[in-house]
């Protein structure tokens, strides 16, 4: 089985387990109409993000890479009353489309979109007293993954979960000679996670409508639980 089969199975899973949702559909339609790239998480992946957020009862979520707000809506819907999600987006048009989609989802009061390069926004958070976050979803420019991971750690607490999208890249990640900066960003992220006593991490490979890829899943450890 290859790409067409993976996409077919994803359609089957989506059709079986993911309830049709006019708000999420509208978010994808408005994103497509505005010419945004179709690189949002798939519906089953969006449900997975919601499930993780609910499992851990996340009250503060930080997303890096908003696009049209599709993953944002999946994550923000998992929040309890008074929970908040902050999402970082460099592209003004993406941020504008996302704001409209988030408004349509009734989540404007829950979601804050911060427009600008994430590496300029993140240093402001400590002064603003914005952490710690319970759950991070890192899904922006891949060469910056190591920096985003370092910021997530700084803005975390023991028990925080850090998910990073697109860590397999069609298998290219295993090629140590790759000169693709996206692959380089993932490989440096992996080296950081491997060497970092404050986290326990794995990566899960995925196939589906977006091809062969995967995500990293890490938890931040309590000081006394490190280096086991
Ligand atoms: N999480 C979204 C998809 C994000 S696509 C979803 O699943 O629905 C990646 C997004 O990251 C794009 O919108 C891109 O503009 C944004 N991005 C790229 N570089 C960035 C940077 N330096 N800072 C913030 N956002 C960035
Ligand atoms: C790309 C980015 C993503 O976040 C993703 O999930 C898939 C593809 C990309 O830039 O090609
Ligand atoms: Mg992604």
Q: What is the strand and helix layout of this fold?
A:
Layout: H1 3-17, H2 22-33, H3 43-55, E1 60-64, H4 70-76, E2 84-89, H5 92-104, E3 111-115, H6 118-128, E4 135-138, H7 145-154, E5 161-165, H8 181-195, E6 199-208, E7 211-220
Bound molecules: S-adenosyl-L-homocysteine, 3,4-dihydroxybenzoic acid and magnesium ion.
Give an overview in words.
This protein has helices at residues 3-17, 22-33, 43-55, 70-76, 92-104, 118-128, 145-154, 181-195; strands at residues 60-64, 84-89, 111-115, 135-138, 161-165, 199-208, 211-220. By secondary structure, it is α/β, with parallel strands linked by helices. Helix 2 packs antiparallel against helix 5 and helix 7 runs parallel beside helix 8 (181-195). It is globular. The protein starts with a helix and ends in an 8-residue tail after the last strand. The model has no long low-confidence stretch (mean pLDDT 97). The structure holds S-adenosyl-L-homocysteine (SAH), 3,4-dihydroxybenzoic acid (DHB) and magnesium ion. Magnesium ion binds next to loops. 3,4-dihydroxybenzoic acid binds at residues 39, 139, 165-166, 210.
Key attributes of the depicted protein:
alpha/beta, seven-stranded mixed beta sheet, globular, 8 helices, binds 3,4-dihydroxybenzoic acid, 228 residues, binds magnesium ion, 42% helix, binds S-adenosyl-L-homocysteine
Helical coverage, percent range: 40-55%
From the spread of the alpha carbons, the general shape counts as globular
Estimate the strand proportion.
15-25%
- What is the C-alpha radius of gyration, as a whole number of Å? 17 Å
* Largest sheet data: 7 strands, mixed
**Total strand count, please?**
7
SSE pattern: HHHEHEHEHEHEHEE
Which ligands does the model contain, each kind named once?
S-adenosyl-L-homocysteine, 3,4-dihydroxybenzoic acid, magnesium ion
Mean pLDDT: 97
**Poorly predicted regions:** none
Number of helices: 8
Helix- and strand-based class? alpha/beta
First and last CA, distance: 39 Å
Strand order of the largest sheet: 3-2-1-4-5-7-6
